[in-house]
Design the sequence.
């Protein structure tokens, strides 16, 4: 996100991830990286379908402003 110019704080990101978990749009696994436990979020098939729908709807909206 940072590479695309977005500034996302943990206070913004983690509530969204928790909501996506509740809605079963992502799964969560713990991984050990350099001796530390890290949370790994991965989109489910349902989450990917919903993301594609959102992208399509946003694309249609943006085309209206061109």
Sequence:
């Amino acid at each position: 996100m940072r590479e695309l110019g977005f500034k996302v704080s943990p206070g913004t990101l983690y509530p969204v991830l928790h909501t996506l978990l509740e809605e079963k749009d992502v799964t969560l696994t713990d991984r050990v990286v350099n001796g530390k436990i890290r949370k790994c979020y991965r989109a489910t098939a349902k989450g990917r379908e919903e993301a594609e729908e959102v992208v399509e709807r946003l694309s249609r909206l943006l085309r209206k402003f061109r």
Residues 2-64 form a domain with the Arc Repressor Mutant, subunit A fold (CATH 1.10.10.10). The first strand starts at residue 26 and ends at 33. DSSP finds two helices and two strands in the chain. The beta strands are 26-33, 36-43.
